[in-house]
């Protein structure tokens, strides 16, 4: 196995864990896992909790958790963030301000939009391109994408069922108030 294959396998392994975390909230299966890339150790994990707090997206939750668990002493420059979907602009800004140098995600914003998720149409790559002053983050999308897409498609079905609708109206998975 060459280095590249090893990296792909490693990403898939952590993404599997992010998916497991996402399954803790099947209605909003956004799961995040922060890993120390030096030791491969998981620093913190989190799932979307927007049912309690509209801005409690998994990416911001995992950053807050990592700070709490490590008394603010996190070597952000040595971390990789794994998340089941492409970060929204709010989370991407948080990631950039934190200094996390790499984000690996599953589903794309375009896919979520296609499924009917509400979103703010600024892609993660547009956010990184707009950042200055040494705020750099590498983005790797499409890791276990089919698995992540299936999770979000199932969540959307669940949402429509609970609302008793079959239309393709957007839901509030990415932020607004709980229905
Ligand atoms: Zn977000």
Keywords:
179 residues; alpha/beta; disordered C terminus; binds zinc ion
Question: Please, could you describe this protein's structure?
Answer:
This protein is an alpha/beta fold. 42% of the residues lie in helices and 16% in strands. The protein contains six helices and five strands; from the N terminus they run αββαβαβααβα. The protein has a five-stranded mixed sheet with strand order 2-1-3-4-5, with helices on both faces. The chain is globular and about 45 Å long. It starts with a helix and ends in a 16-residue tail after the last helix. Residues 171-179 have low confidence and may be disordered. It binds zinc ion.
């Amino acid at each position: 196995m060459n280095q590249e294959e090893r990296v792909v396998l490693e990403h898939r392994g952590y993404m599997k864990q992010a998916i497991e975390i996402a399954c803790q909230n099947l209605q909003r299966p956004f799961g995040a896992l922060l890993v120390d890339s030096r030791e491969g150790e998981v620093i913190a994990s989190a799932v979307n909790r927007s049912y309690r707090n509209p801005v409690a997206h998994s990416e911001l939750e995992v950053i807050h958790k990592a700070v709490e668990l490590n008394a603010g002493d996190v070597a952000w420059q040595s971390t990789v963030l794994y998340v089941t979907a492409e970060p929204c602009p709010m989370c991407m800004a948080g990631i950039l301000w934190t200094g996390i140098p790499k984000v690996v995600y599953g589903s794309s914003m375009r896919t979520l939009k296609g499924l009917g998720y509400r979103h703010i149409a600024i892609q993660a790559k547009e956010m990184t391109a707009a950042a200055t002053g040494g705020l750099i983050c590498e983005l790797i999308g499409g890791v276990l994408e089919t698995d992540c897409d299936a999770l979000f498609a199932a969540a959307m079905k669940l949402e429509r069922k609970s609302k008793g609708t079959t239309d393709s109206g957007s839901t509030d998975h990415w932020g607004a108030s709980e229905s």
